[in-house]
């Protein structure tokens, strides 16, 4: 399912059947990609007056309580988003089941969750699927331990995808 219209239809069906009250972003350690997406989406929705959706993030690795790297903190701060309260938390089956949308950063993460929670597969998406310009499914590479420019590239990708996701959520919630 690669085109945004199909994604929109799928999310609209989820909205009609169970509502979109909880969105969960997932990455490997819950230190870079998923927290950026979580805080960006929350910021975008709140700026549009939508505070009804609970947005959280988690990681496959249990690094409970770890803070985001300084590079992420600085990028988010420059964007006007305070991420200082974020602490890493693990994702588990309960969090998957209670979430209306589960959004991962890599195809293999989607595959792992699909195997662990086959009944929830229809609610699992790649964040890159929300790119309005390029509907090709692709991974968002983990910047952890890379150069500052790598973090910046990751931040820019996530920002574009979150903007597409924000528009989709707002269009569905206005119906």
Which short descriptors sum up this protein?
single chain, 175 residues, Rossmann fold, four-stranded parallel beta sheet, 46% helix, globular
User: What's the N-to-C terminus distance?
Assistant: 23 Å
**What portion of residues is helical?**
40-55%
Please give the count of helices: 6
Compute the gyration radius: what is it? Answer: 15 Å
Q: Compute the number of strand runs.
A: 4
Commentary on this structure:
With 175 residues, this protein is α/β, with parallel strands linked by helices. The protein has a single domain (4-173), classed as Rossmann fold (3-Layer(aba) Sandwich). Helices cover 46% and strands 11% of the residues. It has a four-stranded parallel beta sheet, with helices on both faces. Helix 1 crosses helix 6, helix 2 (33-47) packs across helix 6 (148-173) and helix 3 crosses helix 6. The chain is globular. It starts with a helix and ends with a helix. The model has no long low-confidence stretch (mean pLDDT 94).
How are the SSEs placed, and which strands pair?
Blueprint: H1 4-17, E1 22-27, H2 33-47, E2 54-59, H3 70-78, H4 93-98, E3 101-104, H5 107-116, E4 124-126, H6 148-173
Parallel strand pairs: 1-2, 1-3, 3-4
Helix pairs in contact: 1-6, 2-6, 3-6
């Amino acid at each position: 399912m690669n085109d945004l219209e199909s994604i929109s239809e799928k999310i609209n069906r989820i909205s009609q059947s169970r509502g979109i009250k909880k969105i969960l972003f997932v990455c490997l350690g819950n230190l870079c990609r998923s927290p950026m997406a979580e805080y960006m989406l929350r910021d975008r929705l709140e700026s549009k007056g939508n505070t009804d959706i609970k947005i959280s993030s988690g990681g496959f690795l249990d690094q409970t309580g770890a803070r985001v790297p300084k590079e992420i903190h600085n990028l988010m701060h420059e964007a006007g988003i305070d991420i200082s309260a974020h602490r890493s938390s693990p994702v588990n089956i309960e969090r998957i089941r209670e979430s209306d949308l589960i959004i991962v950063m890599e195809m293999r993460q989607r595959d792992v969750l699909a195997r662990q929670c086959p009944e929830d597969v229809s609610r699992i998406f790649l964040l890159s699927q929300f790119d309005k310009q390029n509907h090709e499914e692709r991974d968002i590479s983990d910047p952890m331990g890379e150069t500052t420019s790598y973090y910046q590239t990751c931040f820019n990708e996530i920002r574009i995808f979150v903007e597409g996701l924000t528009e989709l959520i707002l269009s569905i919630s206005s119906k």
